[in-house]
């Protein structure tokens, strides 16, 4: 994605429709998703019989449920939710609120200069303070940040946290924040020039119980190789569609540390970040436990550097899955009061089972299909494919409008999309299962 010069955000076109309350949209999406699942069950009875003759009925039901029925239901629910979603307009398009950007950095000397440059170039009417916490770097990160801050005229506070761990660095920075709202930003993440303006505009346009807004994070190094090309579509379509769906139901499950806005007092109220590998996941779910809501702002875009080596990609995604398990243990759906939050968090209980089924059964079944054995992978498993394409079309339309509004251009990446559609789940599910195993056995946690 590339940026054209454009200092004015043109909001995506609004739609004149009859207002439908969020809870009605939820039940409409549920009804259609369940209808699709019932249809899938009805036509898959021959498949169930064939597989039962090989592995027995209980295991056959488990396999088909978690590689076809439940994934199909979830994709249908997301698709209908996206069709029903209408992002409300900003009440104040150009706020001037004084805010802070908090950056926890460890060995980011080569990247933090560019990050600060993009902060300095923000098209924002309010004052921006920056707090940089050096988490015991060994490459001169603090010196590089000080030099860049002086060069760009930023109002920066520099802190040092010797104890390794991102949560410790963030909590050290939290103590120094003096503004009502603050953002977290990764040291390798670049903000679009209207990012601060639009994320602040969203929270000021939201009800008082909205304590955080997740920014719209996309991949910026997608041209490195085929792995980053696939990740571009994962961020652009997959992650963004889930966040938009969750935002519709007022429970974005992760106000990610890479770029999100928070109410300072609420973060302090819930005790800041826990010493866990998924500190941003656990923090968000603690908000839900206290009755707060979390929104998502598509117009607040930041570009982050995604892993371009498979081992780094594996570490990142296994951390994410471990973080999800940590969140379930600390603030699972049974600890929530809002119905929509209970449902959204409940989906995450199903995800490990889906990953397990794809890893243990679907991938071997795919190999068998090449030899003419269609017990697990066959024509019926293709039923989810049209739904995935539908989600792609819907999200691409949404994202195209967002990019047009911000003066961005969607670059062609057909090879990446083809590999994303056909192979991403095959790669991702085993990595996720590895992350679950690491968390169950409490293996060593690594920040990066």
UniProtKB/TrEMBL annotation:
Residues 100-270 form the Glycosyltransferase 2-like domain. The chain crosses the membrane at residues 18-39, 59-84, 339-363, 375-396, 417-437. Keywords: Glycosyltransferase, Membrane, Transferase, Transmembrane, Transmembrane helix. Signal peptide: none annotated. Pfam families: Glycos_transf_2. Gene3D superfamilies: Spore Coat Polysaccharide Biosynthesis Protein SpsA, Chain A. GO terms for molecular function: glycosyltransferase activity. InterPro entries: Glyco_trans_2-like (IPR001173), Nucleotide-diphossugar_trans (IPR029044). Belongs to the glycosyltransferase 2 family. This is Chitin synthase. It comes from Coprothermobacter proteolyticus (strain ATCC 35245 / DSM 5265 / OCM 4 / BT).
């Amino acid at each position: 994605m590339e940026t054209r010069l454009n200092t004015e955000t043109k909001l995506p076109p609004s739609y004149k429709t009859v207002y439908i309350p969020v809870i009605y949209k939820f039940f409409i999406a549920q009804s259609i998703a369940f209808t699709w699942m019932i249809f899938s069950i009805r036509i898959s009875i021959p498949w169930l019989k064939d597989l039962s003759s090989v592995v027995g009925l209980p295991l056959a039901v488990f396999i088909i449920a978690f590689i076809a029925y439940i994934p199909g239901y979830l994709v249908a629910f997301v698709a209908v939710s996206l069709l029903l979603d209408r992002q409300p307009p900003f009440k104040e398009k150009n706020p001037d609120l004084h805010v802070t950007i908090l950056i926890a950095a460890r060995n980011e000397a080569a990247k933090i200069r560019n990050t600060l440059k993009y902060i300095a170039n923000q098209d924002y009417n309010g004052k921006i303070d920056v707090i940089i916490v050096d988490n015991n770097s060994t490459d001169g990160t603090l010196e590089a940040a000080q030099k860049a801050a002086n060069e760009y005229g930023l109002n920066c506070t520099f802190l040092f946290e010797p104890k390794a761990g991102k949560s410790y660095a963030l909590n050290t920075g939290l103590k120094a924040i003096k503004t009502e709202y603050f953002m977290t930003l990764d040291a390798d993440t670049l903000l679009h020039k209207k990012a601060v303006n639009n994320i602040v505009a969203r929270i000021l346009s939201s009800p008082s119980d909205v304590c955080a807004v997740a920014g719209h994070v996309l991949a910026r190094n997608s041209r490195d190789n085929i792995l980053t090309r696939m990740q571009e579509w994962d961020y652009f379509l997959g992650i963004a569609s889930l966040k938009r769906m969750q935002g519709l139901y007022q429970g974005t499950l992760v106000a990610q540390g890479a770029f999100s806005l928070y109410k300072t007092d609420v973060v302090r109220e819930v005790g800041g970040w826990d010493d866990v590998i998924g500190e941003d996941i656990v923090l968000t779910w603690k908000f839900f436990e206290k009755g707060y809501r979390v929104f998502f702002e598509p117009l607040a875009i930041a570009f982050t550097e995604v892993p371009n080596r498979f081992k780094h990609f594996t570490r990142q995604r296994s951390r994410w899955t471990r973080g999800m398990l940590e969140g379930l243990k600390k603030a699972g759906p049974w600890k929530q009061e809002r119905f929509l939050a209970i449902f959204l968090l409940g989906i995450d209980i199903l995800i490990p089972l889906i990953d397990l089924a794809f890893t243990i059964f679907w991938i071997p079944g795919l190999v068998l299909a090449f030899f003419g054995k269609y017990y697990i992978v066959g024509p019926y498993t293709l039923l989810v494919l049209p739904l995935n394409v539908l989600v792609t079309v819907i999200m691409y339309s949404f994202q195209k409008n967002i990019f047009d509004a911000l003066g961005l251009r969607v670059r062609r990446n057909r090879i990446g999309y083809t590999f994303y559609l056909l192979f991403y789940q095959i790669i991702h599910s085993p990595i996720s299962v590895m992350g679950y195993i690491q968390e169950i056995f409490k293996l060593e946690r690594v920040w990066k």
